[in-house]
Amino acid sequence: MNQPTPATKPSAVRTEDLALGYAGEPVVEHLDLDVSPGEILVVLGHSGCGKSTLLRAIAGLVRPIRGEIVADGRTVEGPAADRALVFQDDALLPWRSARRNVELPLAVQGVPRRERRRRAEEWLARVGLTRFADRLPGQLSGGMRQRVQLARALAIEPGLICMDEPFGALDAQTRASMQRLLIEAWRASGCTVVFVTHDVDEALLLADRIVVLGRQGIVGEHPVSRPRDPGAPPGAEFRARVLADLSTTRSLAPIDAGRAVA
């Protein structure tokens, strides 16, 4: 059960001297992070720096070696209904239709059947899949499956969505479409998003704030002055600062091939 923790200021997520890893072996250490409610925070870093591990820890799937994670004023001790996780792999059940995949976490939460169907249909409509609600995942394209996954995450009405390189396996056109859809869905829901990527262009497009992650914690933090403004995208100087921080880290091989440490 998540235990209340006093917060010095209202934060969607806060970490203090966090160390994460597997079998006692750290993947990332000394991580102090503060995410504001309603923010899109992009965590940028090379493979092996611990981005995915951090996201899974925020979602409650990985326990810290040291330090703590506080979400909405409560210490994270496991998964919770107000936190959703979106993977690069769509993670849909192949024998359930798109609608029934969206309804599944609502059923687990005990949401009545009529309300489950209403929410599933609402979010499938928002992501443009009304006509495909009864299709199985195998009958959908990769982009459509990611839209189903996004609808499933938003249907539970979370305060926080953790997104682990969700568009990394998509072609460029579909990826751009999904990025636009995410921005629209975020505006409609008002939730907080922590988005992990290794793609600088994606970070610049989506973020209110970019943090560059290395094995020893955050190596750079970059607030975007006019986020998601097509008329004033981050300029060359801003991009150069982000790239300079990224260059101070290096690609690291996972310590265990069976663990996700990206």
From TrEMBL:
SUPFAM superfamilies: P-loop containing nucleoside triphosphate hydrolases. One of its GO terms (molecular function) is ATP hydrolysis activity. The keyword Transport applies. Gene3D superfamilies: P-loop containing nucleotide triphosphate hydrolases (3.40.50.300). Keywords: ATP-binding, Nucleotide-binding, Transport. It comes from the Bacteria. InterPro entries: AAA+_ATPase, ABC_transporter-like_ATP-bd, ABC_transporter-like_CS, ABC_transporter_ATP-bind, P-loop_NTPase. CDD domains: ABC_NrtD_SsuB_transporters (cd03293). Residues 13-240 form the ABC transporter domain. This is NitT/TauT family transport system ATP-binding protein.
